[in-house]
Amino acid sequence: MTAEKLGADSLSSGIWKERLQRYAASLKYALHVIVRPFDGFWDLTREKRGSLAAAHTFLALFLITYVLKLLYTNFQFISAPVQYINIYERCASLLFPFLVLCLANWSLSTLFDGKGHFRDIYMAMCYALVPYILIQLPLILISHMISVDEGAYYSVLMSVSLIWCGLLAFVGLMQVHDYGPGKTLIFIFATIFGALVILFLILVFFSLLSDALGYFVSLYREISFRLS
């Protein structure tokens, strides 16, 4: 029994070690993706160089960076009312549209003969957020080390991070679905429209649900009042 237990523990340890190594490799691979996006995004999904664990990590780091930016950036470079900031609402305001866009993209991929699955789309979009993390996070510290006159450099770096992320998302969708640039551009506009439709349907659903609950609550109160 002891030998069997030791063998099982050794096997379990080996599996976890292999998983950690794969996770570390998929995190490191993001550096290749952001500098060589055409090859990077293709291998990310086709050659399984990425992982959902790494994608979740980048999405979480993106949200953390956004919150830290609001809370700790020098007040000369950001006008966020810190005392009124609700961290959970701010994170939800980014996370929910992000997931809806991924869902809309996946939903429309059949109409546009796209080859990407939801997992591939989600991973590509998460890996596209890496420049935001790498640039915006150090900018929080840099904002306390420069003057207002040097704010142009701060603004340029912020713009670079956003443009870089946008270009990576474009190339990522192009490689995931195996599209050309023109079709990808059209598909992105269709995705935005689809996301707006999904948001509208969600709002209508919750509005109807709220009305229905209100009706049953008022009906219950009326019956209770008459029986009392």
Distinctive features:
mainly alpha, globular, 228 residues, single chain
Characterization of this structure:
The chain is mostly helical. The chain has one domain (52-227). It is 81% helix and 0% strand. It is built from 8 helices and no strands. 24% of the residues are buried. The mean pLDDT is 87.
In short:
This protein has 228 residues and is mainly alpha-helical.
* Total number of distinct structural domains: 1
Class of secondary structure makeup: mainly alpha
SSE sequence, one letter per element: HHHHHHHH
Number of strands: 0
How much helicity do the residues have? over 70%
Bulk shape = globular
**Uncertain runs with pLDDT below 50, 5 residues or more?**
none
Distance between the termini: 69 Å
Strand content: under 5%
Taking all Cα atoms into account, the compactness measure Rg is: 23 Å
Give a topology summary.
Blueprint: H1 2-35, H2 37-46, H3 52-72, H4 87-108, H5 118-127, H6 130-142, H7 151-177, H8 181-227
Helix pairs in contact: 1-2, 2-7, 3-4, 3-5, 3-6, 4-5, 4-8, 5-7, 6-7, 7-8
